[in-house]
Known about the structure:
17 helices, 3 domains, two-stranded antiparallel sheet
Amino acid sequence: MIQLIWKIWPKRIKCDPISHGNILSEVSMEPDQQAAYEAEAESYFDSIRVPFEQTLRATKLDYPKFFARLAWLSGFVGVATIPLLSNRVIASLFHTKSLNFLGKSYEIQPLAVEVFIWCAVLGPMGFGGIARVISKGRELTRAQKPLPPYQMAFALSYAIKQELAHFERNKMELHQKEIINLWAKLLTYLRWTLDLSLSVENASFHRLPPPTYLVAPHALLIAQTFNWEITEQSAYTVIAGLNLLHSRVTPRLSNGRDLQSVTNILRRLGNFLYTCIPEHRKDSERALWGYSELHGCVDALCKLPEEAVTPEATSAERFKAFFAIWAGVFTHSHVVVAFFAWWIVFQALFGALAAIAFHYFANLAMNSEAMIGLIGGPIAAAISMVGITRKIQ
């Protein structure tokens, strides 16, 4: 419990923050001094921009999602071999029970059984289970190099603030998309910094967390258990206020409303996080300024009204969204994802054409040349389409 509270009131203050909860409301500082501290924080952000960008790139590629898609693809290939487990289907399609590949003869049905086991059973277990967990663990390791979580939380708050300024000037959708991406990472880093409860299961650097996500769930549980809302109201207000970040700020970043208030919240939060960096903890005046900024952030959060719940999408809207997502896969920024999308389409097309040909022309036989064409044709077509889409973009 003490460790969790100390994450919000670090040890550099020579007083008991719990028993002196009103000290923050009594802090008064000259405007020039406040401006100097804020300029110092801005300058510090500029000084760590290079390692910040390096750490940001380390969490940019969504490898866990990539392995999940490989698991889906593997399962799809395995399910596609189910019809070949029947001798009647094999006889109808190929008019033979074996095929020749590179001078060797293979029985179709045993080969289909092996493909089914490897792709439909072992493939999803490997890619979707083991590989995905390992990749998420490595992602957590990369996410704290070269900047540790507390510095990344500070830097992300300032980066979002700057993106908000760009968005308010020109209303470009590109800036809004970048804001959401950075905000998802900030929520994760805040939980990592404030609560020490981040794990592979609740870490997400690539998408917004669910509505029930809190940045300090353990601290809130302790505050509620010991009834701090009455006994330690100042501490409870800070903890409960920080846990409103996702529910109050995320809808406004998504719809572009109350951006001035959101910018003020992120500015004050970033100033507090700046004073939490170890090399800045010796200056007690700077620390008190940081605590006053934290209370200002919480006050601003509590004043924001709750956003109305977005109505559930209709069937037509869900279909359009689903179609837009799949259409975007073919021009995905990750070349491997785009390649697999095109390959699935061409492989299905080539497979359907081959099945029709072998069914209606009994004199055709599946030999090594036909097999190479059936495998290599979709690959070549997919590579070509990826290159064409890259040039068009």
